[in-house]
Amino acid sequence: MSGHVLDELGLRSAVEADALAAGEKAFAPVHVGTRDLRIGTLLELLGRHEDLVPPRTGHLGNWEDIALGRSGPMDFNTAICGGGHGYPLIYGFTRTEADTEGGDEAYQPGSLIEQGKRDTLALHTWDGRHFVRRDRSRPLFCPLTRADVDGELVPLVDLHWRRMLKIPGYRFRQWATVLVDRGPLVTDMLTLLVEQSDATARQGTRLSELISHAVRLDGEVARCDVVREGTGYLLDGHRYPSARALAEAALVLVRALVEPAAFFEQLPALPPVLPVMSLQLTNVLFGLLDTHHPDRPAGTRESPFVTHLHWGARAMAGCPPRRGGYLTRRSTVRSLRAITAPLVRGFDEAHPVAFVLLPAQVFMLCPPSTSPADGELLTGLFRTVRTADPDGVHDVTLGWLREHHDRLSPYLRGRFAKGAGVPADGTSRDPAVPVEPGGFRELTFRQACAVIGAFEEALG
Asked: Which range marks the domain in which residue 55 is found?
């Protein structure tokens, strides 16, 4: 099906499909935010291919108001996951929000948010002998954190996961479960990559591109250096005797997201520092492990290459050309190719990957059903945009905003504020669903990204 999807989207040449099929390339990304691909063309394709469901990689945390369409800048999740255009694949290697930078301020996993009201949780981590309460002075790694709920310490991961599974209509799936279900294969893959890596590689993979962070058992996580020492590897002072031992330790943290209670039982016996898989490796595994076919039996593989469609948000996809995401940066693509190539050579289960990055933020242009006037205004904007020169859409939108800024609802304008996440200001908002304004599906992704870039510049 790989080639058929690319043909239907007009992206075959953009990802050099022939080179992927011939094994001349191992990884090729295309950002549809830079392409003249109609939004409607993509959504119609997803409707025809019912087994093709691109993941929307959200974070562990507060999804209740997201599902009810009252999460402000996070409403693009509502449009995608509630609208059937994707499913929420939850990434749990995040940190609690804190007084210092580095925590997840969007999903705020260190708190419970419902109906716009935020209740901070009492958080506890291991001090070497006991679980002790921590203040908010620093972010804490979610898999290693417990919360006090009615006098009982429960894994923070489990607390949020149970709440998320109660949300009707949302097919939540853990990224970690995908890896654990294929644990022996993933361990073998990471072992091979570690063995073949080099700290100063120019063409191959650096160790830091595989293991990017180290986490201590008290929940402190930071960037790290992994140093080869003979046949072993030093991770922040702790020695793992082999590449396989390092890989197995990385999978221990992954399993902590799937079986948190069992993880905390064994925590006192674990090494003092554990390796955290990098985002580069994670993104490669998204494609290799077929996360875009969540209902397909494990072990089924596309051939001769994989076409992986993925909804990326502000960090991953951004809105080019004004603000691109990290995935298609030249340095990131080099790393993704260096990781994928030895896996394709070394494992029958691995095929080259065409990574089709879909910017989730285009759905920020779909106002809530509680603001019909916004929809009427945006219908007029889209009519103007569709007749404008593609390179001039940003400036055209800025001009439109100067005239119509005050007519847009505060809620819609607030979606584009800098650093905003799930609202927790105590304001009660009615449940809503995102509504596509007239002409939304006729926009190209390139046009929609230019419009959003202008909204962020004018309203952020």
From this structure: 2-91+169-175+281-362
245 and 203: one domain?
yes
The tokens describing 42, both together, are 């993509």
212 pLDDT tier (thresholds 50, 70, 90): very high
Give whole-number Cα distances, 292 to 79, 87, 128, 236, 374, in Å. 18, 9, 40, 35, 33
**pTM listed for this prediction:** 0.95
Q: What beta strand segments (E) does 19-166 contain?
A: 27-31, 55-56, 87-90, 111-114, 117-120, 122-126, 131-134, 146-149, 152-155
What are 341-372's pLDDT values in tens digits? 999 999 999 999 999 999 999 999 999 999 99
pLDDT band at 97 (very low <50, low <70, confident <90, very high): very high
| Residue entry with tokens 């905390």 | 264
For range 270-291, the mean pLDDT: 97
Beta-ladder partners of 310: 357
Do 218 and 295 lie in one domain? The reply is no
Structural domain tally of the chain? Answer: 3
